[in-house]
Every structure is written in structure tokens, then in C-alpha cells.
Write a structure and sequence with these properties.
161 residues; Beta-Lactamase; eight-stranded mixed sheet
């Protein structure tokens, strides 16, 4: 479960967890139906889907990127199926079949909960994390307010330094 209480609480979170909060809040505010982090050789790519179109967003930073799968695993309720014994006859030599980890992440915002379906492709260093977002319309305003508070708090903190 991820809980947004305040901008101060968000600033106190570890970087990977704070990044996860911010991308989920942005996706909810923008009425996205899907959020995906794709992993590759050169780092991560971040996309979300709004009105049937995919939008590429700023990628996770190099220090946050390798921590995202474990951060989602810690916050979500996942089922990690056992890997069946099978031989992969196509693809990269020595490749193994890795079943998806699937479940949900409960996000608490403004005292209300929204469940996001989660799928993690566990292949390292590749794979992806995908969140499916349904019925978030009631959370759009609260997500926008949370992001505005966070931006104000970030600006205040930078001014103090």
C-alpha cells in the first residue's frame, strides 16, 4: 500500500518510493488508464495511456531506476508464480521463461483508496512494470492538489537552500 498524507511526508520518502508516488499521482490527475515503466540496457522508459494514446514521460533517474521493481514489490500485493520447467527454444541462448508477477497496489489519497492492477515482468535487466488504472475519476482533483502541494513544498525547500 502507498499512502499520500502530505507533501512533507512525500519528501521524507526514499527516492524510488517518492518517484512511484509522483508518477501515480500524475497518471491519476491526467486520467491515464495505464502506466508502464519499461526497462532496457540504457535505463528506463516511462509511458502512460490517456484516451487510448501512449505518452512518453521523463524517464526515471539512474539512481531510482534499478530500485523500482523492488519498491513496487514492497508496496503491492503480488502473486509470484513458480517457474515451470521448460526449455526456451527461441530467443537469447540460455534464456529462461519468467512468469509475470501479478496483483494490485492500493493507493490511499485523501482518505480514500484506489486499487491499481500491477504486473511485473521479472526478467533482469529488462522487463517492465505495468499498472492498470480504473475508475480514477473521483481522485483526479485530489491528485492535482497533492501534486500542487508537493511542487510548492519542493520550491520552498529549494529556496531555503
Amino acid at each position: 500500500m502507498l499512502v499520500y498524507e502530505s507533501a512533507d511526508q512525500l519528501l521524507a520518502e526514499p527516492d524510488a518510493r517518492r518517484f512511484l508516488h509522483v508518477v501515480i499521482l500524475n497518471a491519476i490527475r491526467d486520467k491515464a488508464t495505464q502506466l508502464e515503466v519499461r526497462f532496457g540496457d540504457a535505463g528506463g522508459l516511462l509511458y502512460y495511456r490517456v484516451d487510448g494514446r501512449d505518452w512518453e514521460l521523463a524517464p526515471p533517474s539512474d539512481d531510482v531506476y534499478p530500485l523500482l521493481k523492488d519498491t513496487v514489490r514492497d508496496a503491492a500485493q503480488l502473486v509470484s508464480p513458480e517457474r515451470p520447467e521448460l526449455t526456451v527454444i527461441a530467443g537469447v541462448p540460455g534464456a529462461r521463461y519468467e512468469p509475470l508477477e501479478a496483483g494490485w497496489l492500493t493507493y490511499q489519497l485523501g482518505g480514500r483508496w484506489i486499487d491499481l492492477a500491477v504486473r511485473i515482468d521479472p526478467r533482469e535487466p529488462f522487463g517492465y512494470i505495468r499498472f492498470d488504472i480504473e475508475d480514477a475519476e473521483d481522485f483526479v482533483e485530489a491528485a492535482g492538489e497533492a501534486l500542487a502541494d508537493y511542487a510548492t513544498r519542493l520550491t520552498t525547500e529549494e529556496d531555503e537552500e
